[in-house]
Amino acid sequence: VTCTGGCSQCPPVKRRGGWPKGRKRKPEIPGAKPPKAPQTAYVLFLADRRKFYDPREYTFGEITKRVAMEWNSLPQTQRDVYERRCEQEKNRYRNELQAYRQSHDFQLIMRKKRLKRALSGGNPEDSSDCTDGPE
């Protein structure tokens, strides 16, 4: 008799890919997509340094730990390079976010959200959305 992982003596059978049972996938919104959030200085450093480690030799966690130790011992002058890149990323994000919020697609999305909120009894003037960020 083969077990499907339901009994207490056998380990549970791992499910393959897909969404966990009971979770709903949000529908893809057509049109303009919101801009990608800016990366921090550490994440930029991590992306640069990860290339030098062979994933067959080290696990993902080991690579991250080693790069974190490198970041902690990095002189401020070298950190400033990544801090400047981070500031450029933030400026890019602010500009793209401003353009996105003025786009026709974003206005349609917000109109639908306000209408839905008004119909459900919420405050239709509440303008919070998933793209709120630094202004």
Describe this structure in words.
This protein is an all-alpha fold and 135 residues long. Helix 1 crosses helix 2 (60-72) and helix 1 packs across helix 3 (76-101). It is built from four helices and no strands. The protein has helices at residues 41-50, 60-72, 76-101, 104-119. The mean pLDDT is 82. It is flat.
- Shape verdict: flat
How big is the Rg? 23 Å
Span of the ends, CA to CA: 63 Å
Helix fraction by DSSP (H/I, runs of at least 4)? 40-55%
Strand fraction band?
under 5%
N to C succession of SSEs: HHHH
User: Quick one: how many beta strands?
Assistant: 0
Q: What integer is the average pLDDT?
A: 82
List keywords for this structure.
4 helices; 48% helix; mainly alpha; flat; single chain; 135 residues
SSE layout:
Elements: H1 41-50, H2 60-72, H3 76-101, H4 104-119
Summarize the structure.
The protein has 135 residues and is an all-alpha fold. Helices cover 48% and strands 0% of the residues.
